[in-house]
Amino acid sequence: MESSELQEIWRRELGLLRPRSFACRVGGSEAVVKRLDLYGKLHGHKGCVNNVHFSPSGDILVSGSDDKDIIFWNWSNKSKILTYYSGHNENVFHAQIMPYTDDRIVVTSAADGQFDLRNQTPIKLLTCSSFSENKQSIRLNSITVDPRNPNLFSTGGFDAYARVYDIRNYHWDVSKGLDQPVNNFCPRHLIGSTNVHITGLAYSNKSELLVSYNDELIYMFQKEMGICTHPKTIQAEALQNLDQPQVYLGHRNSQTVKGVSFFGPCDEYVVSGSDCGHIYIWMKKTGKLLRMMVGDKHIVNSVEPHPFFPFLATSGFDKNIKLWTPMSRRSAPLPKNAKEIMAANKGGREVRARITLSPDVVMHVLTLQRRQALVYREAIPTEADSDSDSTPEEGSPADPTEGNIIHRKDKMQTSKARNGTSEVPQKTSPITPKSSRGSKKIATESDSVTSKLTPGKSSAEKSPKITERRSPKSPNFEKKRLVRQSELEHQVAQLQDELKKTKDQLNSSELLKKKVQLESEEAKKQLKAMEEKLEETECKLVEFSAAEDDRIQQLHQISQERDKAWQAELEALQEQRSNDCAALGSAMNEIQRLKQQLDMVLKSETSHVEDFESEQTELVALKEDMEATLSTVENLKVQINEKEMAEKEEKLTAYETQKELEMANTIIESLRSEGCNLQEYLNSATSKLEESRVRINALEEMVKELQSSVEDDEIESGKPPFEVESVASQSELEQLRAALEAAEAKLQEEQIQTTMKIQSAFEMAEHVKVDAGLRELELESTLQKTKAELFELKARLLSLETQLPGISQINKELKDEMDEAKASQFESEMRLIKATTDVTELKANILDKETQLQSIMEENEQIKSELCKRDSKHQKNYAAAMSDAEKAKSAEHEALMRLEVVNGEAEKISKKATKLSEQLEAAQAVKSEMEIELKRLRVQSDQWRKAAEAAAAVLTPGNNGRIVERTGSLDSDYNSLSGKLISSPFSDELDDDSPKRKNGNMLRKIGGLWKKGSK
Q: CA–CA distance from 148 to each of 58, 153, 726 (Å)?
């Protein structure tokens, strides 16, 4: 995975990225698209699968096929849910589950020009009509629903317009009239075109419409790019102002009906199939090609993305559905031959133009010949002509061809079927009414076409009615003739250019024919080689299967025989063992006696025991190391938990400090409010003091005035009545002054106290802020330290976890060594047993020497030795039998393994045979298609050759200024040709001339040539 995706995952793990944005960024990344790989295949259709579609919930996959069946799939476990017959008359091209219906309403469209809204019961079908006057029905290929507005759905078929319908305007009774679309989408250069049609449609989550055209490109339209409800009424200025849609190119969409879709959680990509068998994925915004995957052996029809996950479902000619998921470990680049494939697709689009004789060329030839005849007619006026001009006959047609030229739809269809590959639209024309004007009756010619083309024979040999009419030439006629000659020369030059073009087209068609023949020969060779390989593989399979059957039978017989022999031997051994058990019982007593002597032998094996103990001590040390590592891991985990708890406590302390800061801020604000109140009180007090000062000043002035008045009165009268009053006023003034001074002192004290309080509050707030900042810094530093320690602990954990498998492997190795030590101990015990047997033999010899006198004891010892020998022999035989049984079992197991291998190889060979048979069938289908294409090309080349010969014959000067008049009638082929001529745009030039200047001779010639070419 790339670094950007790793960064996204890291951000998601840290909680810095939302789950939805993470899904959009990672699910829609280029790395996911470049890792798409095949997940599985769904088998069930009997024809090529034209369409696949996921339900809105993403649990169900719906598919439509050429077998006209609709299948519901459980794609996760690759199984069918439901299969039903669609009811369409032709191939099903699209099937979709309607949204917001709980996966119960299905919409299908087919090549019969109908789409079906299917619920529990079928509903009447609506017919999509063209924008022409005749309102012909259009074959539909695709239908899609707007996810933003489920009432709107778009249909696409066999014209260039994508129609948008509103289901709210849908008339359930079709007999009331045809429903019109609410909007239409089409590229500017394709408006009015009849050579392309739509094969696939898709809506994005932003109501962007994606349209795929047959043998054209893919276009993406914004919602506001619609043209109008009726494209025929749009003006040229409006066409020029239309916005150009986004274009996606590189693929080829010619052979089948192909779908197109958006891909990605936010519709970041555009996906489509191709005739080259590849799946194309483009960037939606830029149109850049991002991925090319091989999705089919022949053609990929449909590519459908999952609504939620980065999965794709594709279908094509292989009669199965392929599922794609991002399973690959490496991002796949574009293939090395991508440019060659895209160039081949582009060349195929350019070469695909059908090789047909253009009606314009035919009409040019006809108009040229007709004007030549009219020039000769003007040059030779006669009395009969003047009489006919002066006295016209009523009811006579202006031209004998006009009354007989009738356009018939069946004739046009037969002529189109003969041309086969023509895509030129055949315009219907009404029956030409007979002219009321009189003109000279011109006889038609009834001779064969070969007589018309032989210039060596004279017209007098064919009919006695041939007359030559000539008159003197006038100067006006000479001028007209020169003008006509210049026009005719220009037209001849144009016709020569067109003939050159037709010859070039013929040459290209012949080259294509040769290429197709070479390809068919190569395909035949490949088919022969494949058939030979198939025969060889079948022969090898038959031989191999026969040899394997014989070998299996032989192995079964051998195993049965061995089983019987082993069973017999086992039964004999069991009988011997039962007999020997009694003898062993008596021998056990003697063995117990010998155990005391074995103790002496055990001392010699103490060295082995000491080695074993040393190994055990090493194991114990390793176990202790393991326990120490585990304890360290547990301690680390405990430390991590403690760190996490410390982080939580630090977070709590930070939260508490934040609360304290908030409280300090509230206290500061309250102190500020109190200071403001105190300032207001001080202001009010100062205002009162100023008022009292003003009053005191006023009183002092009044006292001074009174004193002055008193002094004047005393001087005048010599009476001191106001002295007492002045003394009283002075006392009042002194009291007021004392009160003022006291009030000023109180104000000053209060001001000093308030300023002290405010300063202390500010100092407290600053102190709290400083403390909070320091604590925050300390907490941040501790958090960073804890994060670093956590990261180190995690790294240590990861390293220990990486070391754990190594330690576990060491433990396993130690256990294996323990097992080996146990095995060696068992071997040492066996050696001890052998040593004991040797000791017994030595003791027997000693006893023999000591008890030579006692014969009974000797016989007993002999009997005992014989019993021991028998026991040893029986044990050896039993061990040999067991080893043989184990060998037989191993041989049987090997034989079974070989059988499984052989069966696997047989299955592989059978699969290869089925694949080869499928390839043969596909090659035969390709061969048949190539043969059909060869036949069509041969018919086209023959038609071209005949048309070119006809045009060359028409261009050769034939009559040398003479007019041939013969009696006869036109055949049905001539009527069909004249119908084509009337429907052609050059018919206006023919109608411009007067009836007496029309000559049917050249028309009859071209009719005969056309008849010959059609044969």
A: 18, 11, 102
Phi-psi region of 216 (alpha: psi -120 to 50; beta: other; left: phi over 0): beta
Residue 660: count other Cβ atoms within 10 Å of its Cβ: 14
pLDDT (tens digit, 9 = 90+) per residue, 220-251? 998 888 887 777 777 666 777 778 889 998 88
Residue 993 to residues 397, 398, 555, 997, Cα–Cα distance (Å) = 14, 11, 101, 6
Q: How confident is the model at residue 975 (pLDDT cuts 50, 70, 90)?
A: very low
Sheet arrangement for strand 69-74: 49-54, 61-65, 69-74, 79-85
Query: What is the bridge-based pairing of β-strands 198-203 and 209-213?
Result: antiparallel
Q: Starting at the edge strand that comes first in sequence, how are the strands of the sheet with 198-203 ordered?
A: 198-203, 209-213, 218-221, 246-248
Average pLDDT over residues 697-715: 72
Tell me the mean pLDDT in the region 186-204: 86
- Mean pLDDT score, 312-330: 87
d(CA 1008, CA 1014): 10
Residue 621 neighbours by CB distance under 10 Å: 10
Domains in the chain, start-ordered, CATH in brackets? 1-34 (no CATH), 35-350 (2.130.10.10), 359-518+968-1014 (no CATH), 617-848 (1.10.287.950)
Residues whose CB falls within 8 Å of the CB of residue 654, separated by 6 or more in sequence, listed in order: 775, 776, 779
Report yes or no: 168 and 115 within 8 Å, Cβ to Cβ.
no
- The lowest-confidence range among 319-333, 416-430, 463-477, 809-823 is 416-430
Confidence of residue 375 (pLDDT cuts 50, 70, 90): low
In the DSSP assignment, the letter for residue 100 is T
Tens-digit pLDDT profile for residues 134-187:
778 888 878 888 888 888 889 998 888 898 988 777 655 444 445 678 888 998
* Cβ partners under 8 Å of residue 386, min gap 6: none
| Beta partners for residue 300, in sequence order | 316
**Sheet of 162-166, strand order:** 140-145, 152-157, 162-166, 183-185
Q: How many residues does the chain have?
A: 1015
**Range from 198-212, 266-280, 316-330, 708-722 carrying the lowest mean pLDDT:** 708-722
What CA–CA distance (Å, rounded) separates 361 from 756? Answer: 112
d(CA 100, CA 96): 13
One DSSP character per residue, 322-380 reads EEEES--SS-----TTHHHHHHHHHHHHHHTS-----HHHHHHHHHHHHHHHHHHHHHS
Q: Are 324 and 311 in contact (CB under 8 A)?
A: yes
Answer yes or no: is pLDDT of 412 > 90: no
Extended strands (E) in 75-113: 79-85, 92-97, 106-110
Average pLDDT for 621-645? 79
Beta strands in 624-738, from DSSP E residues, in sequence order: none
CB atoms within 10 A of CB 16: 10
Please enumerate in sequence order all residues whose Cβ is within 8 A of that of 380, keeping only pairs 6 or more positions apart, or say none.
469, 470, 471, 961, 963
* Closest to 308 measured CA to CA, from 506, 58, 526: 58
- Whether residue 720 has pLDDT greater than 80: no
- The string of DSSP letters for 762-789 reads HHHHHHHHHHHHHHHHHHHHHHHHHHHH
* Bigger pLDDT: 291 vs 717: 291
Within 8 A by CB and 6+ apart from 622, the residues are 810, 811, 814
3-state secondary structure of 26: helix
Phi, psi of 822 (to 5 degrees): -65, -40
Percent with pLDDT over 90 in the chain: 2
